[in-house]
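We were asked to recover a plausible sequence for a given structure. The inputs and outputs are reproduced exactly as logged, with field labels preserved.

PROBLEM: sequence recovery
POSITIONS: 659
GIVEN STRUCTURE:
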């Protein structure tokens, strides 16, 4: 994750002749230049084929405002809603008249500086809490700190040290957090933090003293949502459950017996991952849970009061289309209205227990599931992409329920090929079929598509142009089986499908008949050794591509990152290392820029001549590794997100997954 001005750092280094002693990965023989010391923009022009951007940072009224991944929300007694606008690195306010202003931080400017209003800097703020005096508290997740904003707009760091991840208790800057993702405050102004990376719940006193209330030894699993009642009981949402910690430190499960969304009492209920929790005056706990609003009584009775429809992605105005995408946080006012940030970059309100929401701010109309001509089409969450020989593109769009495979024709027209059905998983034709998750996609030479679902351990086949979906390989729920959690996919000329299994450090092969075998790597044996078949080792095989000679190329996205080649005979060699980029902290800070940053490539493709192309999610750039090992940036500018079309460095991207 790079600061917006990262490119300026590189220009400064090159012009001054400084050497970076802390980046051996970037000085390896196959990477002769510094990370972005070489650019090759002249031959690459980027245009938008379908849809258009809706993410932004603009202040304004109602749908004139723009957000970029809003997360935590709180509401004050006057009805002002405060929003942690995560990817803008700012804190925003929405008045009762729907006027949006930025009250702290500067859009697109990552950092950790304390200061007043726009002079302060945040790094992916995630959660908020508000005390009775009007002080706002921020879980500044990217900085691993807890921040405080006074009513006068003064921002200070209350606990933790910027970019110093850890789990240490202590006073103020001596304490350490790891991905704090939930925040609440009690009547005595003690803060309670869902420290998700540590699987812990932490307490922060008004003076900044940090102690640990519960951790992984109590069974916490990625806690995110957190709330506290008047008696000092703390409620925590983790994977599949709502946990309770009494003021005396007694730990128990209030509701939930595992991953799911069944209503019921106690362990008979199921949760996905409650990321937002809030208590009302009657002791009812409300949870934002995987695209729905859940109600939990003090006795642990769970009911679902509102469901999201991800096919809408929150699109439409309140009167005509009150659907929302997926709430990621909750706040409650004195009148019993819930407020939440939506994955569709909008802010909503709804009466507690009501089935529909009203949009307060943001503009979701350019995000959704609409098919149609280029400019009219909408996508919800496009990630991976594949192409056929006729020039059609196929895109995985959406997450969880409602995920679909979309087709983009050469003229830019968009249609839904398959998915969007009402079941979690269902084979069928077109929109009668259902996908729960879509992680990877690949096309064979006959135009058939293959998609992976890592959660349910599936490889599905989608025929074209009819969109018939069948399950090719599965071991649903069997995490100990050799076939589990497939991620990326590629297909060779004979119709064999290859998938990366990041969790078990292997590449697997599925024959056209559905027979599964391990093609390279050894089950559960991480490493970076080259070799043949089971003698090779992978750390975290992520993305996958194939060339015209049926060689596979694997992004091994661990440590410094590498690109590995696998021949049809299973021989594994490393063709490039150091593709995960990091900046040595001492020099970076000495030059006056932000803290240490890291980014791994997310997508990989190989062209007929053997050039390898990598996409970087957080850097927003595309890089090329030539056949001689020379690395150049061909599109975008590091740390400068946007949506502009253009040639080379004039183009802008905002997060890049598949290529």
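RECOVERED SEQUENCE:
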């Amino acid at each position: 994750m790079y600061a917006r001005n990262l490119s300026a750092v590189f220009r400064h280094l090159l012009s001054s002749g400084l050497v970076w002693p802390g980046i051996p990965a970037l000085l390896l023989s196959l990477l002769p230049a510094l990370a972005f010391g070489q650019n090759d923009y002249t031959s690459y022009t980027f245009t938008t084929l379908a849809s258009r951007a809706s993410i932004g940072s603009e202040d304004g009224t109602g749908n004139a405002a723009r957000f970029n991944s809003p997360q935590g929300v709180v509401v004050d007694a006057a009805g002002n809603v405060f929003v942690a606008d995560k990817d803008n690195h700012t804190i925003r306010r929405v008045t009762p008249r729907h006027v949006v202003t930025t009250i702290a931080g500067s859009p697109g400017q990552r950092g950790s500086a304390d200061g007043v209003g726009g002079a302060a800097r945040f790094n992916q703020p995630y959660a908020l809490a508000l005390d009775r005096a009007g002080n706002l508290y921020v879980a500044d997740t990217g900085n691993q700190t807890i921040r405080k904003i006074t009513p006068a707009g003064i921002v200070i760091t209350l606990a933790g040290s910027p970019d110093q991840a850890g789990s240490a208790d202590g006073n103020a800057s001596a304490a350490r957090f790891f991905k704090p993702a939930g925040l609440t405050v009690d009547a005595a102004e003690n803060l309670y933090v869902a420290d998700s990376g540590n699987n812990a719940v932490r307490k922060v006193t008004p003076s900044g003293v940090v102690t640990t209330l519960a951790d992984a030894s109590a069974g916490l699993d990625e806690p995110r949502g957190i709330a506290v009642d008047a008696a000092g009981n703390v409620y925590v949402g983790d994977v599949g459950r709502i946990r309770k910690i009494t003021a005396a430190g007694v730990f128990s499960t209030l509701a939930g017996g595992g991953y799911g969304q069944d209503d019921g009492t106690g362990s008979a209920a199921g949760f996905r991952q409650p990321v937002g929790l809030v208590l009302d005056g009657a002791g009812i706990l409300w949870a934002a849970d995987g695209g729905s609003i859940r109600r939990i009584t003090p006795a642990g009775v769970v009911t679902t009061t509102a469901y999201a429809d991800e096919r809408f992605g929150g699109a439409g105005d309140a009167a005509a289309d009150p659907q929302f995408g997926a709430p990621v946080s909750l706040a409650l006012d004195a009148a019993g209205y819930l407020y939440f940030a939506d994955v569709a970059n909008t802010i909503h309100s709804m009466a507690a227990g009501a089935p529909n929401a009203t949009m307060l701010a943001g503009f979701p109309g350019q995000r959704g599931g609409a098919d149609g001509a280029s400019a009219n089409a909408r996508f919800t969450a496009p990630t991976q992409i594949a192409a056929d020989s006729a020039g059609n593109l196929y895109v995985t769009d959406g997450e969880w329920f409602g995920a679909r495979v979309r087709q983009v024709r050469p003229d830019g027209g968009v249609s839904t090929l398959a998915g969007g059905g009402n079941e979690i998983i269902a084979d069928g034709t077109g929109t009668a079929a259902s996908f729960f998750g879509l992680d990877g996609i690949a096309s064979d030479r006959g135009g058939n598509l293959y998609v992976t679902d890592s959660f349910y351990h599936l490889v599905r086949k989608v025929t074209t142009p009819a969109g018939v979906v069948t399950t090719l390989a599965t071991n649903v729920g069997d995490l100990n089986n050799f076939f589990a959690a497939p991620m990326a996919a590629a297909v060779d000329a004979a119709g064999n499908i290859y998938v990366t299994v990041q969790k078990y450090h292997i590449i697997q092969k599925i024959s056209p008949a559905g027979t599964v075998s391990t093609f390279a790597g050894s089950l559960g044996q991480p490493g970076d050794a080259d070799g043949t078949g089971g003698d090779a080792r992978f750390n975290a095989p992520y993305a996958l591509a194939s060339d015209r000679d049926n060689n596979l190329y694997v992004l091994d996205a661990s440590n410094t990152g590498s690109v590995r080649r696998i021949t049809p005979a299973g021989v594994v060699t490393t063709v490039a290392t150091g593709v995960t980029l990091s900046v040595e902290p001492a020099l970076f800070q000495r030059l006056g820029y932000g803290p240490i940053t890291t980014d791994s490539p997310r997508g990989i493709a190989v062209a007929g001549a053997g050039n390898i192309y990598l996409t970087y999610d957080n850097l927003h750039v595309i890089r090329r590794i030539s056949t001689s090992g020379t690395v150049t940036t061909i599109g975008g500018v590091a740390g400068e997100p946007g949506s502009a079309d253009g040639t080379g460095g004039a183009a802008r991207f905002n997060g890049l997954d598949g290529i």
